[in-house]
Amino acid sequence: MNYNTILNDFSNGITTITINRPTKLNALNKATIFELHTAFKAAESDVDTKVIILTGSGEKAFVAGADISEFADFDGEEGRALSKEGQDLLFDVVENLSTPVIAAVNGFSLGGGLELAMSAHFRLASTNARMGLPEVSLGLIPGYGGTQRLTQLIGKGRAMELIMTASMIDAEKALAYGLVNYVVPQEELLPKCYALADKIKSNSSLAISAAIKAVNANYTDGMNGYDVEISEFGKCFETEDFEEGTTAFLEKRKSKFTGR
């Protein structure tokens, strides 16, 4: 598929999706959200893609926020529809994708940008990254899952402070808060992501998918994470990957997983 607002590249088991609106600091609009949805679902269905890396074009921004011009004149019903459609189409999809997603936060990650990064399974940041949810300064609240995922990642008190003050934090504070896993110079950001992706893709993709499902269950209303873990653990025993992994261990050789 040809995209207008994103770039899509595949190499050595890794799909890299780059939000490509540099003149708008990669701000999210409806077209970008739809194209991201399409690209993520395509990567998930591609058996050769073992890891997805998400980043922004240029050196200034991952995603500087949502495109405010698209909703500045919305009424309440339109606002609710905007939030629900975005969460259903993109943010919840990324969080629950069976293929692991790493966000490479290469600059400003604000509002919808930070919400998108938080939807990924984990995040790395460049030293120049700045993150925040400034929506209350516009008379809004975060509408793409930010009130929930920020609290899950850094705790209620810190999340409340960041949301209420509309403040930005730098990469080092994000690291201290547990919002990102690593902080590296910008030129090292994607290489570090690819190195982690290489480690991930050497393991069983079926087991990784099961682990994502079990971890996410802890944050899903009405689900018991322990029960999901038990169920997914049992399913692993029925896979060829389990047989290969245990056999390789006993034979003291490297596993050759097939994802079956």
CA gyration radius, whole angstroms: 19 Å
Report the end-to-end length measured between terminal Cα atoms: 27 Å
The total of beta strands comes to: 10
Instruction: Tell me the overall shape.
Output: globular
Count of DSSP-assigned helices: 10
The largest sheet, given as strand count, sense and whether it forms a barrel, is: 6 strands, mixed
CATH structural class of the largest domain: Alpha Beta
**Order of adjacent strands in the largest pleated sheet:** 1-2-3-5-7-10
SSE succession: EEHEEHEEHEEHHEHEHHHH
Structural class: alpha/beta
The CATH topology of the largest domain:
2-enoyl-CoA Hydratase, Chain A, domain 1
- Mean pLDDT rating: 96
- The CATH architecture of the largest domain can be named as Alpha-Beta Complex
* Helix percentage: 40-55%
The CATH superfamily of the largest domain bears the name: 2-enoyl-CoA Hydratase, Chain A, domain 1
**How many domains comprise the coordinates?**
2
